[in-house]
Amino acid sequence: MNIHEYQAKEILRAEGVPIPPGDVATTPEEVEAIARKLGGMVVVKAQVHVGGRGKAGGVKLAKTAEEAKDIASRILGMDIKGLTVEKVLVTTAADIASEAYVGIIVDRAAKKPVFMVSPAGGIDIEEVAATTPEKILKLPIDTRFGLTGYQANQLGYFLYSDPKQVKAAAKIMQGLYKAFMKSGCSLAEINPLVVTPAGDVVALDAKMVIDDNELDRLPDVVALRDESSEEPSEVLARKANLTFIKLDGDVGCVVNGAGLAMATMDLVKYYGGDPANFLDIGGSSNPEKVVNALKIITADSSVKAILFNIFGGITRTDDVANGIVTATKANPLKVPIVIRLTGTNEEIALKILQENGFSASSDMDEAVQKAVELAKGGKAA
Ligand code: GDP
Ligand code: MN
User: Fold this and answer.
1) Model confidence pLDDT, tens digit, residues 309-347
2) Which CATH class is domain 21-92?
3) Pocket of ligand 1, candidates 91, 96, 125, 128: which has the most ligand atoms within 8 Å of its Cβ, to mutate?
4) I want to staple 297 with a disulfide (CB 3.0 to 4.6 A). Which of 65, 221, 252, 343 is the partner?
5) How many Å apart are CA 31 and CA 25, to the nearest integer?
6) Alpha carbon 88 to chain centroid, angstroms
7) Structural domain boundaries of the chain?
8) Cα dihedral 139, 145, 151, 155 sign
């Protein structure tokens, strides 16, 4: 789960990380009022779940409250990488002497959180990693001990030479680490962490990604979810208890079990197609899940063909068949459907489908190939 910059900043502030004051707004008038209250130069920042907002024109400086209002009226409603800006953060502008990068990610191979810091901040850290990897320090953390004082200083010295700034940075690292652990993050970063001309170390941007598996034990973090900023199909899927991830292709896949779903996507690729999604309806026998799955997939206009791939074990294929019939009666399909099912109650399922004008096969290769062809035909039409 992603949270917004202003939310991540609140969490970091609570851990003692120095962050310029500010507030969030949804209208230019609110922006003006906040800017007036802050006084002086402010930054108006688009709140969307995506990086690179600065380059996209979503981060702008304003000298006066009137200018902030004017800028806000342009940023609000703006499209940044497919996301509409509905909120902006208005914050006191800082003068920048240098920009550094500070981040923590979970390293799955090391099974540890790993700090990554670089004095070459502000820009894409991926680019720094690719061109000048020596400018990045990676430091794995043993969660039994947390970030030790020694390690925090080590990170600080990699960024700065002035002992005061090293000390300030070390304290910020501790705050970031605490926030990362408390909020169940898979990623937490500050980019840029700046030094002002006066020598203060301040966080100007913050990003946190929460590990979805942590959410059950963190109601306060769940409350930060902003559904209006999420992929609508993924919101629907979550509410229907389906495991769903939207992808860029045109073959809509409905599969039971994560392993079979992965194998199906591989096979779609193998036959020259592109899956539009990953969707696991799970192991239970529940026609309602099939109805919801079809609702989500048919709402996606890039889907040119639908592929069902069901292996009936605990899942009864006749339940799936009933789900398909119910869903398509309520909402007739506008794209072709290919159904492959085998296993528990296969004969009953085939009978239900045939009686309702669907054909089905039990051969996975054949079904996938057919779906890929149909999706291509749909594209050409
Ligand atoms: P991102 O592009 O989505 O990562 O958004 P950031 O919040 O990191 O802002 C992008 C860039 O805008 C930063 O790297 C800074 O160079 C600049 N910026 C952001 N806040 C301030 C500020 O308070 N003062 C100044 N002078 N520049 C800022
Ligand atoms: Mn940034």
Assistant:
1) 999 998 999 999 999 999 999 989 999 999 999 999 999
2) alpha beta
3) 96
4) 252
5) 6
6) 19
7) 21-92, 98-222, 231-375
8) positive
